[in-house]
Amino acid sequence: MFNGFIRKERIDLDCTVEIVNTFESFEAHVRFNDGTTVNPGDEVLVHGTPISVPYGEAATFERRATLTRANALERFWTRATGDFEFMELCEFSFSEERLT
Questions:
Q1: How many domains would you assign to the chain?
Q2: Per residue in 67-81, pLDDT tens?
């Protein structure tokens, strides 16, 4: 039981990488082809050459990825501190109003 508290599990999976680079949106998503989900504290490393999508385009790539599951301590820490990190983002405003 204590071993699961410290040990990390690594899983190699096929994934689909979707990238949009347009005026309306700049985004990237990784979806595991078998439906595996990423949980708090998990890490994903997508393998292969760097991806570049020209401005104004969207593209989809098939890649291999390594999912490293967080151990129990990391999951706890991520859940416990996640709200604080979110609040840091709330301190910024992206409006066009200028303060004088």
A1: 1
A2: 999 888 888 888 877
